[in-house]
Amino acid sequence: MNIINIETFLTIVETQSLSRASEKLFVSQSTISTRLNTLEEELNTTLLKRQPGKKIIELTPKGEEFITIAKRWMALEKDTAMWINKEPPLRLNVGSVDSLNIYVLTPLYMDIVNNIASFSIDISSHSSVQVFDLLESHDIDIGLTSRLIRSNSLLSEPICSEEMVLVSSSRFSNYGGIIHPQDLDVTKEIFQDWGPNYQIWHDYWWDPTEPIKIAVDTAGLILRFIDIPDSWAIVPITIAHAFETVHPIKISKLEIPPSERVYYKIIHRYPKPSSVEPLKIFQDYLHKFIKGHPYLKEVNSP
């Protein structure tokens, strides 16, 4: 049905007159009659009783019923026009490892949503392997991980790195500002696996057959055990300083540290069309965030 004809019908009902409807719509009365007749033909029914000489219109029972339907048509037309003219939302699905999301990237996420009102972010935490799987299936749009997995359908590049430091309780331990690995008692360690390179370094300094007393799978658990006397853990420096804001800890440098923890940005080789613009915005903010971060160091792609 022609929306103009429906609008004309509702104007007739509102003004109770074909002549007043023509004045309100700035068209001739004959045009009003033509539109009404066309609408009735489309509906195969009569909406108005034709009574020559009578100035006030009278609706048929079908005309009375059609008022509600006509109003719904007009509302739908309005909603459709708004939908057509509305800018598409900027929504991005970001997947990362837990330690990055909680201790490193939160200020970045806040910066984006605070500065771009139309930008929405879905943030999820996964293992590095899961991040790659979710990217390949287009369930997330960009991944930020600490481990690299080769994939023909994904594009990966290192974006930044940070040094690893030792943390201990400032109340129940007494480690110096610089520690040599050979001076550490591995039985006092709260161990977290920071990747293959870290494990190689760890196995060099301590017997890999030595049983680990406390091992955790998320950085937040380290704080649960750090007050055990003389306990220590090795963490990225951003996490160390995050710990410092909520718990009395001491940060010590390692005289011979493990390799810096490297972070990778991964996107699909063929991203969803709806994610292209938000991906560009996110990556611009990410670059600025890394550049201005006190502990992250930019890494150039090979």
TrEMBL record:
Entry keyword set: DNA-binding, Transcription, Transcription regulation
Domain HTH lysR-type: 1-60
UniProt GO MF annotations: DNA-binding transcription factor activity; transcription cis-regulatory region binding
UniProt-listed InterPro entries: LysR_HTH_N, LysR_subst-bd, WH-like_DNA-bd_sf, WH_DNA-bd_sf
Pfam families: HTH_1 (PF00126), LysR_substrate (PF03466)
Family as reported in the entry's similarity comment: Belongs to the LysR transcriptional regulatory family.
This protein's name: Transcriptional regulator, LysR family
